[in-house]
Specification:
Blueprint (H helix, E strand, L loop, with lengths): L12 H7 L13 E11 L5 H16 L11 E6 L5 H12 L3 E7 L6 H17 L14 E5 L18 H8 L1 E4 L17 E4 L12 E2 L11 E4 L4 E3 L10 E3 L2 E2 L8 H9 L10 E8 L5 H4 L2 H13 L6 E6 L1 H12 L21
Parallel strand pairs: 1-2, 1-12, 1-13, 2-3, 3-4, 4-5, 11-12
Antiparallel strand pairs: 6-7, 6-8, 9-10
Length: about 350
């Protein structure tokens, strides 16, 4: 995946400073802060069998070693690349989903599309994915029900037609049954929104203006028909992390080849951003991302094992913190439950609005 290398700090740095002193982790009503951890994967197998075989053999063993406050093992969300679709891969991934180790959602690199070509390709792709139990619709008038990550970061044509082509992509996605976008952050890209460390709603304005700013998801505020959820991961300047000696690290929640994601300094910074539905600060969402097809050695390795161990030892004491491993769909359901004013343990709301793929 190629992105533009020039840094675009102006897209988000003002929001960073605006929020710098505005939030601290909260304990709600005498109870713990719930840390909801979701691992989203820009999953690009590209027809290379070793990539998938490593996942099939190593991930179940890794996940079995760890559990959250309710005994739930880590869950992965494979945002499967539609443009690299191979049915033999879908067949094998189905067994991981059936073992409750994760779920499959939609990742898509596409270019020079129009409204018509976009919808035609999406419809054809979803029909294939649905043969294997993925992304089946919940509402009868929709093509499917799915979360989305845009390949090359170009949501709503943010980086031009060579990476998308559809200025009203958000509107088309929601109309097709997409429940939310999990693309961002997009460090060093013109696609990065001004708004960071948020769960918020974009509108149907075309181009980047549709999602660069938006309304925060908040308790007691229902989403409107022309609003689309943007579910962000952490993006911050980590002043505690000076790995590069001459400047602090910009943290974006990427799990990759740097082999640093077991570092408590990084993990604590993810939690410290306090991404939450406004009015429910004791439910904190931590979304990290990877390219688990290409980077399977690091994502399935000892560093990830140690990352889970640190999360469980530091954010799961039952008094100050409770840890919850979740898929993108489950995290969305928890966020919607928070919007509806529900409280307590978010584990109760994993299937709040959108059921598990096997139950559709």
């Amino acid at each position: 995946m190629k992105i533009m290398k020039k840094p675009y700090f102006c897209n988000w740095i003002l929001d960073y400073f605006r929020n710098l002193f505005s939030f601290s982790l909260a304990v709600g009503d005498g109870g713990p802060t719930h840390v909801i951890f979701l691992f989203v994967d820009h999953y690009e197998l590209a027809g290379k069998p070793p990539r998938l075989s490593e996942w099939m053999s190593r991930y179940p063993k890794l996940a079995a070693k760890h559990s959250d406050s309710h005994g739930v093992h880590p869950k992965h969300t494979w945002f499967y690349a539609l443009d690299l679709l191979r049915e033999s891969e879908l067949l094998q991934l189905r067994s991981l989903v059936e073992s409750d180790l994760g779920e499959v959602e939609l990742h898509w690199h596409h270019d020079h599309d129009t409204t018509d070509s976009f919808l035609e390709k999406l419809r054809e792709g979803l029909l294939v994915l649905q043969k294997y139990g993925f992304m089946r619709p919940v509402e009868k008038d929709k093509m499917g029900c799915f979360g989305f990550i845009h390949g090359n970061w170009s949501l709503n044509n943010a980086r031009g037609e060579q990476y998308c082509g559809v200025d009203n992509e958000i509107e088309l996605l929601k109309g097709a049954g997409c429940y939310g976008d999990f693309t961002f952050p997009a460090l060093n890209s013109v696609a990065q929104p001004n708004k960071i460390n948020s769960i918020y709603y974009a509108d149907f304005t075309e181009g980047t203006r549709g999602y660069f700013e938006g309304r925060d998801a908040a308790v007691g505020k229902k989403a409107q028909d022309d609003e689309f959820m943007i579910f962000e991961g952490p993006l911050t300047i980590n002043w505690n992390d000076w790995r590069f000696k001459w400047h602090p690290t910009i943290e974006n929640g990427e799990i990759g080849q740097s082999l640093s994601h077991d570092d408590p300094i990084r993990i604590d910074s993810w939690v410290r951003q306090g991404i939450h539905v406004k009015g429910r600060p004791d439910w904190v969402f931590v979304k990290v991302f990877c390219h688990g097809g290409q980077d399977h050695e690091s994502v399935l390795g000892d560093v990830t094992d140690r990352m889970f161990t640190y999360l469980e030892s530091s954010y799961n004491d039952g008094t100050k913190y409770k840890l919850h491993y979740a898929t993108a769909r489950e995290a969305y359901n928890m966020a919607k439950a928070a919007e509806d004013g529900l409280s307590g343990d978010p584990n109760n709301f994993r299937d709040y609005l959108i059921p598990h793929p096997s139950k559709r």
